[in-house]
């Protein structure tokens, strides 16, 4: 039975659009810093116990992550520009060892792996950079960023005082540093990079490595210092970071973090804006209010550097997703979504917070600090210089709102929120009060010219006769090996094959026989004598399992063929590199004769191995077809919805855009050829192309704020709802409240906003008329159609 099939969709074209894929980058944000890309002078980056200092001035630094391999070079300028417009001052990224050195001593810095081009793009936007070399990165990236060939070197042990590992780590780290130095990209050379990182979250696992772990982290510090980059080195989640390394915090909240040295500023390298997604899992979501609360609380409690992880998540192209079972999408619920669109209200609400913090930078970094405790988890923090004072009022109670009298004025502070008073008098921002729009993203059908009603497909079966019937492989060993050892992770697919000769009198032969496999394959297919007897996929994280299926064996030669499939290698934990994958055995033929069970162990038989599939080897994904398909018109991102398919891999114009299982959305553009490898079968007639963009926008904004409605480059076509007073409901289901302004809000906004791409609205009684709402806070609820 042929269950492996290549599905080929023919060329589709557009005169107006270029092929374009998403990537993930690290956006860092530094307050009140302007870096002119043409400057050649050296920037002095140092630190004291209060803050990072740049050219002698203390800075409030906020940073966010965008990883260059998770988007395309075409996307980088737009992503970075949006980061800057969102109030960021720097970009942060990891460096991915296995992407850059896929084969020992063979390097790749082409395409979306062009690290130097990415760093120069940051510089050209007038921003700073934070370079997290690692080279262990975690990042939900395949094998944590380590190349699998590293694991297969003799005597290798990762992340400990192992000479082979330390030599390879130092070699790669040095190569990256020298590349960056050559282009004069460290701040000490006049470039944008103000911080560098060595290792990553080692403190979370150091206990498992004993004294060797402590010695290793000291070696990391010494090695990094010897590279003389001219900017501070950081170590995240490393409470015992050797001096002069700066230890930093990762997590959802880091307000209670204290550095291990009084001369080290309080720094937060990963504020998780959402989370990653697993195949079969729900879309993760972290509320906008909670992200803002965490940031404001961090700065209330003397924080000075904060990085959003992620600011743009992007896409795990090709086989870069880690796991196992991490999805191709790495959207992360970040302020910029997978396609680079503004994720509203998260993007806008944080931008407003950044603007407030920018205005307070000098007070926050030079002011004397005092605290007032109101009880019930409510505190006020005052930063005061000779020129001015700035205040935070934090309510950490999760359920109770607070009404407090602070310096003679009453303030209402919602539960789990922080109010910011830049002059210690007027509240200009509260983390729980969102005064920016929510954008509702929609997928729309392809509106290209001459669109056919259905896609035309051609099929090409995977040629597997040689492995199913003959058991022919590329290598043979009398042992079952881990898939990483045999394949070097060159493919998700590894064939295990053996031939078993059974004599007619062999006691295992009979009518009731089965094949039993002890496996760590993420997905397993089993064949006996060319017949597919069954398959298994891991669920609930149980990656060690026993698969047993009835099978018919004959006297004479019997060919057993097992296909092991990985779906991302582990990327986190102590000794994660040793987690097995594949058919680790033992493998048995089971015969049952009445009450008697006969077991034949095949583990030490001669096993043949073959890596990959012929469709991949023959690069059918690069084939061109005589038919054409028009990509959707316009500039919005294009997604391919693989509804009806099972599991496999997709390519656009020969570029592997990742795994799908059971559906995949990816950004595509231009003259395109789509090729799908379908692993378990499906109905491609349901596959279709769509655009993704803003369908409607809505907001529920407090009085005395300015709301800007925007349809992301498209005109506002209608005002569906508007009411100023105390409206109720949520986006998409607003309703009028018990009080409402005298003027018709919908009519006003229809006149002012319809037909415009952006529409600023002064939320006030001056515009909408008086609203007799008593003590209730007045708000404008509005929903607009794009």
Automatic annotation (TrEMBL):
BP GO terms, sorted? carbohydrate metabolic process
- The answer to keyword Hydrolase applying to this record is yes
Segments forming domain SUEL-type lectin: 701-786
Q: Which family does it belong to?
A: Belongs to the glycosyl hydrolase 35 family.
**What's the short name of a Pfam family annotated to this entry?**
BetaGal_gal-bd
PROSITE patterns per record: GLYCOSYL_HYDROL_F35, SUEL_LECTIN
Where located? Secreted, Extracellular space, Apoplast
Give the protein's recorded name: beta-galactosidase
Could you state a single Gene Ontology molecular function term?
carbohydrate binding
Enzyme class, UniProt record, top EC level: hydrolase
The reaction(s) this protein catalyses: Hydrolysis of terminal non-reducing beta-D-galactose residues in beta-D-galactosides
Entry keyword set: Apoplast, Glycoprotein, Glycosidase, Hydrolase, Secreted, Signal
Checking PANTHER family in the record gives: BETA-GALACTOSIDASE RELATED
Enzyme Commission number(s) from the entry: 3.2.1.23
Matches recorded under InterPro entries? BetaGal_gal-bd (IPR048913), GHD (IPR041392), Gly_Hdrlase_35_cat (IPR031330), Glyco_hydro_35_CS (IPR019801), Glycoside_Hdrlase_35 (IPR001944), Lectin_gal-bd_dom (IPR000922)
Q: What is its main location?
A: secreted
Q: Which GO terms describe its cellular component?
A: apoplast
């Amino acid at each position: 039975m042929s269950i492996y099939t290549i599905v080929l969709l023919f060329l589709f074209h557009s005169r107006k659009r270029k092929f374009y894929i998403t990537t993930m980058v690290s956006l860092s944000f530094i307050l009140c810093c302007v870096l002119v890309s043409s400057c050649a002078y050296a920037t002095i980056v140092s630190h004291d116990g209060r803050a990072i200092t740049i050219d002698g001035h203390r800075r409030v630094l906020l940073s966010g992550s965008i990883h260059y391999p998770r988007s395309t070079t075409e996307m980088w300028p737009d992503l970075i520009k949006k980061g800057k417009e969102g109030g960021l001052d720097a970009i942060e990224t990891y460096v991915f060892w296995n992407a850059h050195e896929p084969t020992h001593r063979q390097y790749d810095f082409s395409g979306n792996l062009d690290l130097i081009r990415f760093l120069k793009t940051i510089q050209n936007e007038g921003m700073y950079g934070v370079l997290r070399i690692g080279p262990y990165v975690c990042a939900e990236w395949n094998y944590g960023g380590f190349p699998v060939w590293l694991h297969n070197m003799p005597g290798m042990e990762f992340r400990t005082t192992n000479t082979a590992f330390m030599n390879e780590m130092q070699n790669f780290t040095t190569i990256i540093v020298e590349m960056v130095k050559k282009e004069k990209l460290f701040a000490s050379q006049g470039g944008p990079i103000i911080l560098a990182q060595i290792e990553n979250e080692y403190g979370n696992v150091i206990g498992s490595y004993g004294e060797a772990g402590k010695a290793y982290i000291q070696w990391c510090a010494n090695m990094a210092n010897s590279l003389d980059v001219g900017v501070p080195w950081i170590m995240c989640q490393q409470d015992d970071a050797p001096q002069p390394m700066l230890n930093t915090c990762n997590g959802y909240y880091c307000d209670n973090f204290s550095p291990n040295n009084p001369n080290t500023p309080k720094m937060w390298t990963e504020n998780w804006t959402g989370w990653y997604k697993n195949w079969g899992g729900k879309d993760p979501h972290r509320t906008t209010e909670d992200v803002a609360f965490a940031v404001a609380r961090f700065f209330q409690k003397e924080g000075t550097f904060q990085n959003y992880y992620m600011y743009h998540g992007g896409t795990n192209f090709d086989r870069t997703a880690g796991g196992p079972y991490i999805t191709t999408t790495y959207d992360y619920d970040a302020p910029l979504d997978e396609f680079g669109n503004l994720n509203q209200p998260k993007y806008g609400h944080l931008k407003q917070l950044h603007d407030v913090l920018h205005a307070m930078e000098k007070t926050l970094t030079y002011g004397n600090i005092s605290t007032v405790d109101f009880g019930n988890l409510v505190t006020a923090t005052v930063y005061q210089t000779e020129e001015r004072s700035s205040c935070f009022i934090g309510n950490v109670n999760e359920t109770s709102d607070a009404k407090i009298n602070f310096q003679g004025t009453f303030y209402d502070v919602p539960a789990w929120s922080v109010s910011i008073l830049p002059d210690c008098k007027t509240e200009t921002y509260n983390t729980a009060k969102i005064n920016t729009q929510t954008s509702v993203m929609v997928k729309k059908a392809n509106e290209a010219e001459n669109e056919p009603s259905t896609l035309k497909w051609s099929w090409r079966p995977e040629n597997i006769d040689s492995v199913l019937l003959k058991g022919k492989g590329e290598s043979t060993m009398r042992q079952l090996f881990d898939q990483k050892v045999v394949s070097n992770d060159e493919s998700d697919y590894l064939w295990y094959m053996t031939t078993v000769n059974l004599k007619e009198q062999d006691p295992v032969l009979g009518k009731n026989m089965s094949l039993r496999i002890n496996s760590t394959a993420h997905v397993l297919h089993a064949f006996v004598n060319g017949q597919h007897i069954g398959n298994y996929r891991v669920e609930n994280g149980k990656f060690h399992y026993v698969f047993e299926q009835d099978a018919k064996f004959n006297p004479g030669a019997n060919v057993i063929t097992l296909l092991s499939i990985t779906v991302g290698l582990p990327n986190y934990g102590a000794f994660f590199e040793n987690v097995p994958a594949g058919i680790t055995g033992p493998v048995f033929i089971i015969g049952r004769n009445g009450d008697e069970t006969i077991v034949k162990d095949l583990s030490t038989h001669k096993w043949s191995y073959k890596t990959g599939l012929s469709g991949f080897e023959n690069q059918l994904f690069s084939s061109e077809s005589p038919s054409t398909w028009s990509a959707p018109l316009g500039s919005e991102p294009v997604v391919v919805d693989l509804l009806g398919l099972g599991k496999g891999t997709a390519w656009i114009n020969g570029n592997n855009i990742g795994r799908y299982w059971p559906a995949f959305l990816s950004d595509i553009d231009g003259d395109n050829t789509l090729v799908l490898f379908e692993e378990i079968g499906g109905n491609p007639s349901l596959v279709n192309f769509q655009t993704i963009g803003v369908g409607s926008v809505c907001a529920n904004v407090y009085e005395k704020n300015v709301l800007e409605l925007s349809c992301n480059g498209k005109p506002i076509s209608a005002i569906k709802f508007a009411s100023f007073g105390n409206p109720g409901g949520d986006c998409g289901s607003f309703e009028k409240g018990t009080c409402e302004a005298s003027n018709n809000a919908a009519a006003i906004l229809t006149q002012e906003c319809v037909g415009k791409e952006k529409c600023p609205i002064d939320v006030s009684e001056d515009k909408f008329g008086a609203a007799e709402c008593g003590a209730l806070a007045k708000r404008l609820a509005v929903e607009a159609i794009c």
